[in-house]
Amino acid sequence: MLRFLPSTLAAAAIFTTQCTLSVSREWNITCEKHSSYGKNQILECSKLMVSFHQKATVGKLTGVYRKYNTSKYGNALRCEPASFLLEAWF
To answer: Which Pfam families has this protein been placed in (predicted)?
Structure first.
């Protein structure tokens, strides 16, 4: 993720969260205006975020998964990853 600018990470995080929580599957003109990023500019970063979310239960960083899977943090990792983002852009 270090290859992405912080502003790209922020925009991709918002888009990925919108998709994960089923708020929206679109990066609309308002999002583009406020972030100055088009959907094609954030898609790669969003896909990486989704793939990390899918792999959160295995590997070296399971402590992060356990922490955010508690009621103290709103059971944040109980949400299903937005796997459709890993497929072709619609």
So the answer is: Cyclin_C
